[in-house]
Structures are given as structure tokens and as C-alpha cells.
Amino acid sequence: MSRMGDVLAGFHAAWEFESDSVLIRYERGIRTPKLFQALGERRVPLEAIAGVTLTPGRRGTVVVRAELRDGADPLLDAAAGQLKETCDPYRLVLPAEKETLAEYYVDELRPLLGGGGPADRHLVAAPEAPRQFKAYDAKASFDGRTVSFRWFWTGASSAKWKAGDQVFAVDELCGVEWRSPEVFEGHLRLLRRHGAGVPAQADQDPASVVFGLGYGPVHESLPFAAAVLAAVRERGAAAVVPAAAPRRDPADIAERIRHLGELHQAGLVTDEEFSTKKAELLAEL
Questions:
Q1: How far is residue 191's CA from residue 174's CA, in Å, rounded to a whole number?
Q2: Are 5 and 16 in contact (CB under 8 A)?
Q3: What pLDDT digit, counting tens, does each position of 22-44 carry?
Q4: Where in this chain does the record put each SHOCT domain (predicted)?
Q5: Residue 122 and residue 68: Cα distance in Å, rounded?
Q6: What is the CATH number of domain 6-112?
């Protein structure tokens, strides 16, 4: 491997190569994605990386990307493939004139990687607790041991008000479901070990908070979800994969399609988003 401390600097981050890991330091500039700024830096053990690629980018750039092993990073586990390419924390964009240098580091790195098999534990540290953010219907807080939801009277449903503010011990949980705030029906749902009869809609589930325009942004809610998921995994929960949602009442499906149509007509949902979500709702019948 290259000398310890060698650095490959890109537009929004710099990768520092060490004997057993890659230290990624993210910039804090105005053009840097907010998720990168929130993460600050990440130390990625070489055993956590399944592979590394070098490909042409856009507008005179090249892209180095580390592909992590499944289960190695709680942030990627929580994101479940929903991050946009520009917010991929393991994607380093460089000017094309650095291609030769990037190719050198990629070639040096490949023989030292951990292989493509799933990791049996998180190898990359989760964002540290305590953490909190404002969802549309609640303030969510996590102190490392418990998750708290404090409902807002302006956004919480009557079902949530009836249930009252919620506190969940990590030991009660078996996972976390994060649906990006950048899509329709974004939410954070805590998956409980005994979750029978959980409402299908996040706005009716006291173990969920819902997002909205300006509420629960990716750079706040995703690190929160990752921190909770890591705490659950550390306590040996058997399941961290979201279970299939129960089927909804046909009348509820019809109402939500009607609401989706109103958002579409108002220009708040694109044609593609409308078609995709409508198909998802119909599939739940």
C-alpha cells in the first residue's frame, strides 16, 4: 500500500490512505452536500470495503467509488439504496487531470480489501448519539439508550395524540425503517420486537414520525436512523430488515390515491412519482 498519510483530494472530500483504513474527510463548503457536512469524517477499515472502482464522470471529472460490504456500515443499511448519487459518502469526484494518480491509488488498494461477502457486524462507526431532529409531526430524540417522540399539535394525527408522547428503549427494537424525505410518504419508523397490529400508515403509527417539506431532511434524519440501527445491532437484535407492511383497507387506498392525485394536479408530485406511487398503493390491495 502507499505510504501512510497519502491523500487523494476531490471536490467535496479527501481520502487519506492508512495502513488498515481509509479516512474520509468531508469539506464544509457551501456547495458540499449537507449530508457530507453532517458526517464530518468517516474512518473506513479496509476489511469493510468489497471493491473500489474508477470511472469517467461528468464535465471533465473522474469518479473513485468504494463499494462497501453489505452490513458493514449502519448509514448505508439505514439508507437502503435511497441516497442520490451526489450524496453517496463513498463517491469521490476528482478533476480529470488526477486520473493517473487516482488509478495508482485504486490499484494499490484493491489487493488489500476485505472481499465481497456480507459483514457479520458493523465495521464503520455510526454517527454518535445524542441526536435529534424535527419531523413534521414530532421532535425525535435519541440519547444512545432510548428514542423519544414528542408530538407537535400542528402536525400529529389524532391517533398519535391519543397514544401520547412515546419513549422506546433500544432493547425493545429490532430495526429501523427510513424512507427518504425526498419521496412521497417519507418517514422514520421504529420496528419493535412485538409489532403485531402496527398501522400501515406512518402518520397513524406512534412508533413513526413523518417527514414533509423542510422536516426530517436527509442530513438530519438519516444519521439519526443509522445511530439507532447501530445501537440495536450492538444489542444483538435478531432482525434489522423491515417486515412487509400489512395490507390496507381498500377505502384507505382509494383515499390516498385521491390525495396523491390532488398533489399531482397541484404540481407537487411529478408524473413519474404519481405513476410509481399509485402502482405501489394498488399493489397493497
A1: 6
A2: yes
A3: 999 999 888 899 999 999 999 99
A4: 255-282
A5: 11
A6: 2.30.29
Kindly state the DSSP code that residue 206 receives in the 8-state scheme: T
Give the DSSP H/E element, type plus range, for residue 184: none
Distance CA 99, CA 87 (A): 21
**H helix and E strand count, the chain:** 7, 14
pTM above 0.85, yes or no: no
Average per-residue pLDDT for the chain: 88
HSE value, Cβ hemisphere, 13 Å, CA-based, for 261: 6
State the CB neighbour count (10 A cutoff) for residue 276. 14
Grid cell listed for 41: 469524517
3-state class of 275 per DSSP?
helix
Over residues 195-201, the mean pLDDT reads: 71
Collapsing DSSP states into helix, strand and coil, what is residue 158? helix
Task: Say if residues 68 and 124 touch (Cβ distance below 8 Å).
Answer: yes
